[in-house]
Structures are given as C-alpha cells and as structure tokens.
Amino acid sequence: MKSLWDDNEAKQYAGELSQRVYTSRLLGRDTSLVLHGGGNTSVKITATNLVGEEEELLCVKGSGWDLETIDIPGFPAVKLEHLIKLAKLDSLSDPQMVNELRTHMTDATAPTPSVEAILHATLPYKYVDHTHADAVVTVCNTPHGLDKIKQIYGDSVVIVPYIMPGFDLARQCAIEFAKQRNEGSIGMVLMHHGIFSFGDTAQESYQRMIRLVGMAEDYIREHGAWELDYDTPAKDTIAPLALAQLRQDVSKAAGFPLLLRSQRDAKAMSFINRSDVAKISQQGPATPDHVIRTKRLPLVGRDVKSYIADYKTYFEQHAPRARAPKTMLDPAPRVILDKELGMVTAGKSAKEAKIVADIYDHTMDIITRAELLGGWQALPAKDLFDMEYWDLEQAKLRKGGKPPVFQGEAALVTGAASGIGRACVDSMLARGAAVIALDIDPAIETLFERSDVLGIVCDVGSESQLQAALKQGVATFGGLDMLVLNAGIFPGGCRIDNLSSEAWRKVMNINLDANLILMREAYPYLKLAPQGGRVVAMGSKNVLAPGPGAVAYSASKAALTQITRVAALEWGADNIRVNTLHPDCVYDTGIWTDEVLAARAEHYGLTVDEYKTKNVLKTEVSSHDVAELTAELCGPLFAKTTAAQLPIDGGNERVI
C-alpha cells in the first residue's frame, strides 16, 4: 500500500465534500481496494436549508457511482438525525430502509444512498471510508482468520463478525463499536467483508485506510504468502470453435445470449492447472458482494449441464429458509476455468464480462495467498445465497430496464471505417451488440476506442487475413451472431471492350470472392449463435437495373446476391437467415467526393441537391438509413424472413 495523496492535487478540491470526492477517487484508483462500484465513503456536513435552518447531513456514496470517477452529485445528502434514530430501531426491513433513506434526502433527484448509510451515520467521525481490500479479505478467509486479524491489528480496530449488509449489520456495528472502541481505534474490520477507516479529515481517514491495509499486506509478506509463483506459461492461442460451443451452452443455460471473455495469462493458466483447483475454486468468492457478478462458484471444465444441476440443488437447499419467496435466477456460470480455454468469463455485454474477469483475476491472487496462509475458507453457502438473492443487490442488476435487442451478441462488419460500414457499427452498438470491425484502413484500430468494439486491420482480398481476423474476433467475444458483408469497391466507369482482365479480377476478388470466403469461414460460428445466425450482404441497385460502364461491379453484386440466395437455402436448417440489401445513391461515403458529385450532377443537368434526390420519393438515402435497415434485418422484426432482397434507393424507376 502506498498513499496517493498529493498536496498540490488536493488543493484543487476546496471544501469538505470536494475533499471527500478527492480521497474517494484515490481509493478508486487502487483495484486492490475496490473494484467496479465496490466500497463506499461518506462525510458529515452542516448545511442551511431553504427555511434558514442548519441541518446535519450525511453525504454518502450513491448507488450506481464508482469511487474512481465519483463526483459531488454521487454523494446524496441524507438527514443525519433521522439516520441515527433509525439505527436505534429493533428491526427495519430492506424496503423500509430504502424508503427511509430516499424520503429523507435533501434532493429528490439524487441517486439512492448506499445501503450502508445507517452504518456510516452511527460512526462518530466526520469522514468514513469502506473498502473490500484484497489483503484484508485474504486473511479473513483462512482458518482462524479472526485470530490473525486480532494479531495484525490488536485493539486499533473494532472487529465485527460477518453479518449481511443492511440494517442488521449497521445495528451490530453500533453495538460492537460501543463495546470495543478505545482512544486508539482508527478502523473497523468486518470479517469476510472488508474494512473501515475514519478520521476528522479526508486525508486522515484515507491515510488510515492505507496504513491498515498495509498492515495486512505486511502480515501476508512476513508469512511468505505475498510473492506468488505463477509458473505455467501463458497460452497464446485458443480454439475459437470450442469457445463458441461453450458460449452456446452457457447462453442456453442462461436463457439469453452471453458474450465470453478469455484470459490465458500465466496467472490464469497456473491457477487452472493447480492439482487442487477443483477444491480451492469451489469454496466461494473473496467477499459476498462479488456473488451477484460471479455467482457463488466457477465452473471447472465445460460440463455446463452438471453445473446447472448443482446450481438448482443449491437453490432448492437454501430458498425454503429465505424470509420471502425466491424465484431462481438463471443457473448459467459466469466464470469457467478450463485448461484449454483459460479463465473464461460471461456477461451480457463486453463490459460486464470484463468486470467479472477483473473480479476473478483478484480472486485468484486472494485464494492463492490464503492457501499459503493455511488454507482458503470462504463463507458458507447459506450466507452467499442470502447475498445472491438479496433484493437490494438484485435491484442493481435490474435497474437497466428492458435490455437492448442485441444484448450479449456479436456482429462482424467489413469495410467498417467509413460510410455504410461505419454506420452499421454504430447501429449495431446502439442495439447492444459487440462489434468486430474490419477495414483495410489502419485507423480502424483506434476509431472507436471502446471495449465492445474490436477494430482489426484486414485486407478482405486476403484469405489468410480474413481467417485470422475472424478467429481473433471470436476469441475476443466468444462467438459470432451477425455478419454484415459491406466492404466493396466501385471502379471508375469502363466499357466491356476496354475492361482489362486484371481490373475484372480485382473487383471480383473484393466484391465476390472475399464475401464467399468470409461466409464459408463464418458458417461454423453462425451455426452456434444462441439466437440463430444472421447475414446481411450489401448488393446494389445495379443487380436489378445495371448501367453501362459498370459490368464488373454489377456482375459481382449480382453473383453475391445469388450466393446469398443459395446460402439461405443451405443454411435455413441451421437457423441462419441470409438477406440482401440493394442501396443506391448513398452519397455520404468516401467514393462520393464533392468534385465527383458536382460532375455527376452537371452531367444530368441538375443541381447537387437535385441529383442526390433523383428518385421517386425525392429523398436522399444516407449511410445511416442503410445501416438502420441492416440492423433491423438482423432483429426480431425480420425473424421469419430469409433470402429477401430489399431495395433502399428512394424508388428507382428502372428497378420498379
């Protein structure tokens, strides 16, 4: 542990609440303290209300905020006097507690305060910090963990046995704090959960947290458990088809599509290849908060059916004793430990799969160190069940409302750096898909800069590059659901009698051969798509109404259309639907420069605006229009349509 406090940086945060923001962000920067929304912080302030009365308020981290990026709006203010009164009640249900928190905020639009707000209120310090520090939970989750915590901290911390977060924990903490507190108390350890620090200033509370966690790290180091020997080499390659098959099995178990993420570094491979992995991995998570992300246990190997059966048994054993009736959540694993595929995590989005991966990456270190300290010993299953099925925790996962239509799915788009292809990426992302974006332009690698887009430089005219890009994409997201065949070239006008064989072959290679190859290579993955595979090919108005000087382009698009018709016949039994769009006059693409547009408009004796709308509907067709229809073709609206050819041209008289 090292303090990140910087006097110059701290000066930029004036005021008690701003100081709270600053040190909260310092905690959030260290993933060994908090991960993805974990932990919470607070400050007690005095403010004057609208009627001129001074009020004592608790500003505590709000639901949905992450400490690393939190700002002042992330600290809803709750009336402190009321929280203190609540802490003295004999009981308070979770719905009642949330209602009391929300109805006693000073801003009705603020986020819901942390469920540990009452606990923060009862601690008689201005600033309170709470983390799930790896080092502390490592020591807690070992045989005689309580004795080890006492050995580390003596009477400098109050120690509270494990109780599930909420009102009961706040009440018990108040009791233990009253019994154990002394003049030297600077923190509080919640067994199997985490650690609190407190102080009169933000700096004091923060630096006490660093000091306390550092003491646990020193203990681990002194007992030879800090330096870890991950001696199994990282695995560079992966079998993408095996990963896609696993994804299909996991998605089927969940009842909805999930993306997979594979980690195959030395840590993951060493942990997976331990002779005792089947024992140590089946104890439980590092801290109960993780269970809503990772589930209680990972799957070792790929027997998803056995995992489902075990999960159902787990539910049936513990649901009857719950305070309220419970409906079983989906039984699909979120972490899979496999010697070939590595540490695989599942999520409804690329971001969610990464969150699970980050959590289990830390868990592997924690388990490994705990084993060196005498053995890994997580909480009993009954306590983890209570957390997994806690209504307040489940609310965090339900708050998103109706899921995006392509949530948990992956699409591959060719020619994705500009024009229709770029617009297709945007339309897929807007519907929740992860996207494998291919383009010959090197800018594709940094064009989107987000976790749900993998930009790959790829010359679609190269069979080997296409194969490599497809495997890389599947390895990144776990499979393939949608394929958009967009990349193509439109050479300058050339009559047949002047067309060289080289020019003909170049157009055919890019517009026809590349698409055939990509369809062929993508077929095994599309067949494993949880909701059925979908292919959309970009044809052209020229298929139905060719013009002079475009024989290679027109022939290539016509042949591509014929390929999609045959594919629809051949792949229908595999629940893969294949459709074709025929755009025309899409002028917001790279090939239509201002000069070219002006020249073509002049050729027809039209203004540029008239030229852009020279169709029956007198409308302009944009890349966005084409992309939106492409996405809709992959969606439920066209679930029963295959081998269709849809024009998107504003109405072309020759086609009609």
From TrEMBL:
Single GO term (MF): oxidoreductase activity
InterPro entries according to UniProt: Aldolase_II/adducin_N (IPR001303), Aldolase_II/adducin_N_sf (IPR036409), NAD(P)-bd_dom_sf (IPR036291), Sc_DH/Rdtase_CS (IPR020904), SDR_fam (IPR002347)
Signal in keyword set: no
Domain named Class II aldolase/adducin N-terminal: residues: 19-220
BP GO terms, sorted: monosaccharide metabolic process
Pfam families: adh_short, Aldolase_II
Domain of life the protein comes from: Bacteria
Keywords of the record: Oxidoreductase
NCBIfam families, A to Z: PRK08324.2-4
Full protein name: Short-chain dehydrogenase
